[in-house]
Specification:
Belongs to the group II decarboxylase family. InterPro entries: Aromatic_deC (IPR010977), PyrdxlP-dep_de-COase (IPR002129), PyrdxlP-dep_Trfase (IPR015424), PyrdxlP-dep_Trfase_major (IPR015421), PyrdxlP-dep_Trfase_small (IPR015422), Pyridoxal-P_BS (IPR021115). The protein is of the alpha/beta class. It starts with 6 loop residues before the first strand and ends with a helix. Helix 5 packs across helix 7. The protein has 7 helices and 8 strands; from the N terminus they run E-H-E-E-H-E-H-H-H-E-E-H-E-E-H. The chain has a 4-stranded mixed beta sheet with strand order 1-2-3-4. A 4-stranded antiparallel beta sheet has the order 5-6-8-7.
């Protein structure tokens, strides 16, 4: 069409369904056209501290930048987004400002990293401190254990859903989120979500993908245990029974 491709964003764990883009082939195509490749691993990136999940970023060496939100699945309080850039000079050439009142010996000599040249604003919050505290408090072994535990609980919930003929898993589970629905009736699924959340015992969210209204069950809290997942499933079943009873009464 005569347009010039310049930027490609690949996602590792999309918001709606935690889908994963094929990073390696995308990077190959982008390289042919000299495109900047950014990897949005806001959710799924945290799982990559576990060796068994690193296959989702195969080909990441071909990316120019990579980000993950530590406040999503890395136990860090909002907000904390980690950004890695292969070539920081690209940001500096675009975003740096050097008025006389900002000049100093440390910056002029290159002895410090001026993050003002990596972003639009001159100042920034000290977000790295709270992430450092998480790393020091838990340690890598415990962080991996938490993430693996969340995935295991999501797998268990997925089996519960698959074992009930009234429900279906809409998309393949990845990481620690299960996308499911009660029936092909979007209105019924919406009603189920409203009633479950209204109970005050469980909180879920939803997404609309390809016209399908699906429920999103995400495990991600440090305090969540298997018993809570079982309790959540009981609550979902209770309200599913009630909704089916209402529909039978109406029709």
């Amino acid at each position: 069409m005569g347009w010039v491709p310049l930027f490609l964003c690949a996602t590792i764990g999309t918001t709606s369904t935690t889908a994963v883009d094929p990073l390696k082939p995308l990077c190959h195509v982008a390289k042919e056209y000299g495109m900047w490749v950014h990897v949005d691993a806001a959710y799924g990136g945290s799982a990559c501290i576990c060796p068994e999940f690193r296959h989702v970023i195969d080909g990441v060496e071909g990316a120019d930048s990579f980000s993950l939100n530590a406040h999503k699945w890395f136990f860090t309080t909002l907000d904390c987004c980690c950004l890695w850039v292969k070539n920081p000079d690209a940001l500096k050439r675009s975003l740096s400002t050097n008025p006389e009142y900002l000049r100093n010996q440390a910056s002029d000599s290159g002895g410090v990293i001026d993050y003002k040249d990596w972003q639009l604003t001159l100042s920034r919050r000290f977000r790295s401190l709270k992430l450092w505290m998480v790393l020091r408090s838990y340690g890598v072994a415990n962080l991996r254990s938490f993430l693996r535990g969340h995935v295991a609980m999501a797998k268990a919930f997925e089996k519960l859903v698959a074992g009930d003929d009234r429900f279906e898993v809409v998309v393949p589970r990845r990481f620690a989120m299960v996308c499911f629905r009660m029936s092909a009736n979007n209105l019924m699924n919406k009603k189920l979500l409203e009633r479950v959340n209204g109970s005050g015992r469980v909180f879920m969210t939803h997404a609309l993908v390809g016209g399908i209204y699906l429920l999103r069950f995400a495990v991600g809290s440090t305090l969540t245990e298997a018993e809570h997942v079982m309790e959540a499933w009981k609550v979902i079943q209770e309200h599913a029974d009630a909704i089916q009873g209402d529909y039978k009464h109406l029709y």
